[in-house]
Amino acid sequence: MAINWFPGHMHKARKEIKKIMPEVDLVIEVLDARIPFSSENPLVPALRGSTPAIKILNKSDLADPAVTQRWMRHLERTPGVTAVALTQKHPGEVSGLLNLIPELLKHRNLEKRTVRVLILGIPNVGKSTLINTLAGRAIAKTGNEPAITKMLQRIQLPNNIVLLDTPGFLWPKLSPEECGYRLATTGAIKDTVIEFDEVAMFAIDFLRAAYPEALVNRYQLQEPLPTSAVEIMDAIGARRGCLRRGGGADLHKVAEILLNELRSGALGRISLETPEMIAQMTHANSPEPE
Ligand code: G4P
């Protein structure tokens, strides 16, 4: 999978975060609950250092609740980290963060001054939606694209909290390759960047192993499911009438249907990675001891 982020953007984001970090009391890192590992920017842990953090597992309405619980326990093993599962569909729960922040900082005796909170997240995790809910109004997006604010934003929130939003582009984890496919499956990476059909096949292979009932129920497929992703796509195509003139399923159309439905939650609440999968992957990629 050939994706190159612009080194200039990466450098800028790192510089901005490094510059602002000494004034920050707490970091809010927004992650996608379906892929908490892949949706984390690889630089954040080092840049954050020992600053307390709230890791938000956002879009939890789309993720498997049991897996989200496991992620929360896993993330909270890191000192100073509090994990919170949220969905922007319940703005009341989101506003609960405004009470959690002073609660987490109360031992630091900051009552008399403004608390500065830096919010970080890769594109499409729902950072802007979250900022708008917390602020109670629409705030201009920050970023590197045209027509987007290129300045650090300081957004005044209730409870004497100022939210700092940096304009630098935070890229996700694209290595190992599975991370890129998971990001593409959720729609966090644009469909033009990776071959659409390949992403759908990756998603089907994953669903077949981890959530076969989601495929069976949504597309009324026969059990046991075929072993190859293409055969499953053929079966979905037959169900949905996506057939090519010469016979056989229109795989591109099936890929589009499957990914759209998976992303919208129509196949149920699905998490694409678990802490155990990541531990296994990290272990497999680490060099053998001599
Ligand atoms: P960003 O600033 O991190 O780039 O993300 P943004 O808030 O723009 O959100 C990206 C997409 O994710 C939006 O959908 C938004 O509605 C959706 N989203 C944000 N939070 C949640 C959540 O908790 N659950 C679900 N299911 N979706 C969420 P969009 O289709 O790009 O835009 P829109 O049509 O909703 O405006």
SSE layout and pairing:
Layout: H1 7-20, E1 26-32, H2 44-48, E2 53-58, H3 65-75, E3 81-85, H4 91-95, H5 97-105, E4 115-121, H6 127-135, E5 153-157, E6 161-165, H7 177-186, H8 196-210, H9 212-219, H10 229-240, H11 251-264, H12 275-285
Helix pairs in contact: 7-8, 8-9, 8-10, 8-11, 10-11
Bound molecules: guanosine-5',3'-tetraphosphate (G4P).
Provide an overview of this structure:
The protein has 290 residues and is α/β, with parallel strands linked by helices. The protein has two domains: 8-165, 3-Layer(aba) Sandwich (Rossmann fold), CATH 3.40.50; 195-276, Orthogonal Bundle (Conserved Hypothetical Protein Ylqf, Chain: A, domain 2), CATH 1.10.1580. 42% of the residues lie in helices and 12% in strands. It is built from twelve helices and six strands. The protein has helices at residues 7-20, 44-48, 65-75, 91-95, 97-105, 127-135, 177-186, 196-210, 212-219, 229-240, 251-264, 275-285, and strands at 26-32, 53-58, 81-85, 115-121, 153-157, 161-165. Strands 3-2-1-4-6-5 form a six-stranded mixed sheet, with helices on both faces. The longest helix is centred in the last third of the chain and has 15 residues, at 196-210. The protein starts with 6 loop residues before the first helix and ends in a 5-residue tail after the last helix. The mean pLDDT is 90. The chain binds guanosine-5',3'-tetraphosphate. Residues 58-59, 61-62, 87-89, 121, 123-129 line the site of guanosine-5',3'-tetraphosphate.
